[in-house]
């Protein structure tokens, strides 16, 4: 029998209805969320509060969602990470062998880039939404088909995704690996093979194994833990574990934080990747309050684990979610109701971010529903639209680079680097510095890094190399160690 919170447990559905308790403070937040003029100090947003603690707050979006303006406005105001709901899956990208179509995924990436959001790539290898040509291949052709798929897709999105869910949902509930076509062809080694192929194609992307019902300590998470330990000890490029977190109201496992921490202790990032919390319909106010408690617990658990890089909700509002169609009688799993009104879960998530460990940047970031965009031909991506502007230093040479530390916490910090063109436009830029005290990157976005000892080189990503004369773009990073302000040099070919 499938467990009660199996994501793919389908048996009909019932539409969910809006039901939310809206407090005055929450109403004010909504006004910000949908872009109305509000005093800057009226409320934060999920992304601003998350960034203040060196984290992100993300959402899943599908191409269909992009056509719903109220939904995307809310997403752009509140979130700084996007996971494509379906558009990067195998059935969407290589529905027939060797014929690749990245059009839908590209639309999600463009949306993210133009709204200062990063992208979690989802997903390269999964038994579901897998074209039938793959599952019917002779087994001796599966490895090459898998590696070819990964190489093509990860190369296409190189420099454009923060991370990849390289292998999705590999486990059965009892901790055995699914007997899918990949396992049948390669045994458990398919996972290491997939990670290596993804790393070869995009060495800067964080590579994840992502699964559900691994949030608490249980047979499934124990099996994944053993696998992760083995992959790390063998030097396989695994960088993170994604905890999907499709919960039922009142059932967030009490071992969530400890479980994430044990994976983090292996030297891995951890992330809440697909959070939702479904309620038997109709939802009453005590269930909505309990849902708030649940969201608060999940976000607090992430904040308490220093290697928890962020939280993503699987969608935006109750009107656009996979839950009612898959779990009959359940609905209302999101932080906003189907009228885009924030629910207690939103306030709880925001409070958990704000009260989590870590120092806030100073001055308090202004609330901004849209990222600051400098006048370059390609809109630069800035995951920190709230960073206060610093005086623009004169540019000597083709370009300049200025580093601002936007946050720090014990053992780590987050910085943003502004790259500015001089009197002429630049087409490609390189920023170099030397770490003074053994600092190391834990993640970097909007650029590509190469590190040799303490020497760091960051080059533009595929989409932000062109900067008009006098204009700027930014890249950012989180790093381990003490916050530093080394001298940066910028050159352009
Ligand atoms: O594309 C077809 C379309 O041609 C057809 O007309 C239509 C008719 O039903 O179906 C369309 O496909 C649907 C697809 O989403 C794209 O919209 C599938 O039926 C539907 O089953 C599929 O659902 C997705 C589900 O993954 C499938 O596994 C959900 O949107 C998506 O949110 C969900 O996401 C997964 C994560 O990837 C992994 N973790 C669990 C999570 C929730 O199930």
TrEMBL record:
UniProt catalytic activity: Endohydrolysis of (1->4)-beta-D-xylosidic linkages in xylans
Disordered: annotated span: 350-398
EC numbers, comma separated: 3.2.1.8
Domain CBM2: 392-493
Limits of the GH10 domain: 40-352
Swiss-Prot/TrEMBL keywords: Carbohydrate metabolism, Glycosidase, Hydrolase, Polysaccharide degradation, Signal, Xylan degradation
The UniProt record lists the keyword Hydrolase: yes
Comp. bias (Pro residues): 360-394
Coiled coil regions, renumbered to chain: none
GO molecular function per UniProt: endo-1,4-beta-xylanase activity; polysaccharide binding
Highest taxon listed in the record's lineage: Bacteria
InterPro entries (UniProt xref): CBD2, CBM2/CBM3_carb-bd_dom_sf, CBM2_carb-bd_dom_sf, GH, GH10, GH10_dom
UniProt-listed GO biological process terms: xylan catabolic process
PANTHER family found in the cross-reference section: BETA-XYLANASE, GLYCOSYL HYDROLASE
Record-stated family: Belongs to the glycosyl hydrolase 10 (cellulase F) family.
The protein, known as: Beta-xylanase
Natural source organism: Microbispora bryophytorum
């Amino acid at each position: 029998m499938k467990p009660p919170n199996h994501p793919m447990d389908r048996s009909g559905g019932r539409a969910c209805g809006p039901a939310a308790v809206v407090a005055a403070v929450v109403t004010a937040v909504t006004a910000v969320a949908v872009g109305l003029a509000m005093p800057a100090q009226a409320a934060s947003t999920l992304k601003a509060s998350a960034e203040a603690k060196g984290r992100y707050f993300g959402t899943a979006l599908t191409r269909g969602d992009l056509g719903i303006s109220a939904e995307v406005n809310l997403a752009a105001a509140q979130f700084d990470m996007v996971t494509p709901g379906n558009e990067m899956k195998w059935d969407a990208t290589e529905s027939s062998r060797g014929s690749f179509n990245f059009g839908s995924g590209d639309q999600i990436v463009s949306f993210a880039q133009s709204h200062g959001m990063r992208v979690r790539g989802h997903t390269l290898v999964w038994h579901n939404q897998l074209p039938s040509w793959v599952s019917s291949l002779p087994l001796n052709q599966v490895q090459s088909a898998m590696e070819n798929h990964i190489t093509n897709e990860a190369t296409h999105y190189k420099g454009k995704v923060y991370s990849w869910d390289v292998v999705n949902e590999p486990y059965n509930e009892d901790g055995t690996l699914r007997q899918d076509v990949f396992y049948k062809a390669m045994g458990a080694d398919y996972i290491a093979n997939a990670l290596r192929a993804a790393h070869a194609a995009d060495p800067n992307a964080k590579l994840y194994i992502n699964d559900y019902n691994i949030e608490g300590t249980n047979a499934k998470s124990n099996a994944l833990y053993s696998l992760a330990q083995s992959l790390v000890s063998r030097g396989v490029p695994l960088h993170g574990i994604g905890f999907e977190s499709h919960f039922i109201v009142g059932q967030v496992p009490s071992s969530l934080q400890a479980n994430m921490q044990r994976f983090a202790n292996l030297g891995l990032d951890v992330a809440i990747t697909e959070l939702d919390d479904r309620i038997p319909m109709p939802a009453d106010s005590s269930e909505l309050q309990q849902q708030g408690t649940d969201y608060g617990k999940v976000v607090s658990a992430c904040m308490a684990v220093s290697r928890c890089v962020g939280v993503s909700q699987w969608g935006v509002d109750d009107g656009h979610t996979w839950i009612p169609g898959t779990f009959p009688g359940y609905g209302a799993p999101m932080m906003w109701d189907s009228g885009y009104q924030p629910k207690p879960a939103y306030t709880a998530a925001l409070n958990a971010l704000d009260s989590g460990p870590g120092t806030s940047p100073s001055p308090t970031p202004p609330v901004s529903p849209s990222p600051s965009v400098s006048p370059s031909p390609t809109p630069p991506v800035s995951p920190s639209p709230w960073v206060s502007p610093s005086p623009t230093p004169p540019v000597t040479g083709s370009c300049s680079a200025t580093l601002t530390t936007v946050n720090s916490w014990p053992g780590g910090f987050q910085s943003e680097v502004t790259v500015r063109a001089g009197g002429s436009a630049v087409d490609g830029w390189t920023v170099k510095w030397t770490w003074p005290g053994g600092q190391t990157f834990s993640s970097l976005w909007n650029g590509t890094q190469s590190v040799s000892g303490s020497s760091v080189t960051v080059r533009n990503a595929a989409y932000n190399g062109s900067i008009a004369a006098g204009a700027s773009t930014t890249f950012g990073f989180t790093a381990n160690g003490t916050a530093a302000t080394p001298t940066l040099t910028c050159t352009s070919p």
